[in-house]
Automatic annotation (TrEMBL):
This is RND family efflux transporter MFP subunit. Residues 91-232 form the Multidrug resistance protein MdtA-like barrel-sandwich hybrid domain. Residues 39-63 are annotated as: Disordered. GO terms for cellular component: efflux pump complex. It comes from Hydrogenophaga intermedia.
Length: 385
């Protein structure tokens, strides 16, 4: 048996251990986080000072990239703003003209458009038809009586001077003729009344329009004069704007008005009339504006109006340039060094994407547009087209 071990086996385990240590050190150097780099080395290569400010001789970096423009002179419309309600131009009350009859049919409902003379509802006609037949029979009877009395009166007049009849008998025949004639005329009037009553069993629309209210119910027995329907005549609506006495002198008949309904729909109307007196409670004066027919306009709803009073010259900027902070309006002017200066301005009219600047901005200044909402006083910006 050999007493000396193999030389290769004696050096194997130390070399293997050394290889594992080298591999572990290499893996740690490759996978260590970047923030574990020596602080001294970072400080030596950085170009910033202790507070992060640019080092001496280094150019400052812009805080934001913005676009700029100059204020423009434009002609903007002058408008007088007012509030009010949309109402029917005229409403017609359609009621029952017969008494004690039962409604048999109702042909329309709220919102239906109707034509003049259209049948809206009908009452039961049997009773009225029977009255009409009876009145016609009475008329025929009265006519026969009159013809008989007239024939007697004619014979009496023919023999009046012969002495065959006394004067009292002649007068009696003549009087009977007049009575029969009066009874005949009364029968004609009675028949006409029953025919009118029969016609009133059909409720007709008094004008073209739209049904705005309905009180008619099938089977109901109504009294004469009771309202069955309410009709917006000709489907016309109007806006009744409220203006102060100091503003009413600026409004003229025929003036254009942009009316915005509660749905947001804007329509163009014209001033039709101005109330001669103010409301005793609000002290405002009503202005009546005719509106075009439109499905989104509803009576008794709120609407906002703007009276067109002409146009005037104005200094305007883009609406993106106006920044609202702490309840005030600001714009940022960019100087030649690309520094932002916050300017407090007073705004006026707004038309589309343009805002009128009344005070606080010079006409030739460069104003930030895109990115203006993120700027602060003194910020350095980069201007792009």
């Amino acid at each position: 048996m050999n007493a000396n071990p193999n030389p290769r086996r004696r050096w194997f385990w130390p070399l293997a251990a050394l290889a594992l240590v080298i591999l572990a050190l290499a893996a740690w150097l490759l996978l260590r986080p970047a923030d574990e780099a020596p602080a001294a080395g970072a400080g030596a290569t950085s170009g910033n000072g202790a507070n992060g400010a640019p080092a001496e001789g280094e150019q400052p970096r812009p805080a934001l990239t913005v676009t700029v423009t100059k204020p423009q002179r434009e002609s903007l419309p002058i408008r007088l703003q007012a509030n009010g309600n949309i109402a029917a131009w005229q409403e017609a009350s359609v009621g029952a003209e017969v008494n004690g009859l039962r409604l048999s049919t109702v042909n329309v409902n709220v919102g239906d458009a109707v034509r003049k003379g259209q049948v809206l509802a009908e009452f039961v006609r049997e009773t009225t038809q029977a009255d009409t037949l009876q009145a016609r029979a009475s008329l025929m009877q009265a006519e026969a009586s009159y013809q008989n009395a007239k024939a007697d009166a004619d014979r009496a007049r023919a023999i009046e001077n012969t002495g065959a009849l006394s004067k009292s008998q002649v007068a009696q025949y003549l009087t009977q003729e007049k009575v029969s004639l009066a009874q005949w005329e009364a029968a004609k009037a009675a028949l006409g009344a029953t025919e009118v009553r029969l016609g009133n069993t059909r409720v007709l629309a008094p004008d073209d329009g739209v049904i705005s209210a309905r009180g008619a119910t099938v089977g109901a027995v109504v009294a004469a004069g009771q309202e069955l329907f309410r009709l917006v005549r000709q489907g016309r609506l109007e806006w009744r704007g409220e203006v102060t006495p100091s503003e009413v002198d600026r409004i003229k008949i025929g003036q254009a008005v942009a009316v915005t309904a509660a749905t947001g729909r804007e329509v163009q109307g014209k001033v039709r009339a101005i109330a001669p007196s103010a409301d005793p409670q609000t002290r405002n004066i009503l202005v009546f504006v005719d509106l075009p027919r439109h499905g989104e306009l509803k009576a008794n709803t709120f609407a906002h109006g703007a009276f067109d009073l002409g146009q005037s010259d104005a200094l305007t900027v883009s609406s993106q340039s106006v920044v609202v902070r702490d309840g005030s309006n600001y714009v940022f002017a960019i100087d030649e060094q690309n520094r932002a200066s916050q300017l407090k301005v007073r705004t006026g009219r707004r038309v589309g994407e343009r805002v009128e600047i009344l005070d606080g901005l010079k006409e030739g200044a460069s104003v930030a547009v895109q990115g203006a909402g993120f700027l602060n006083e003194g910020d350095l910006v980069k201007v792009v087209q």
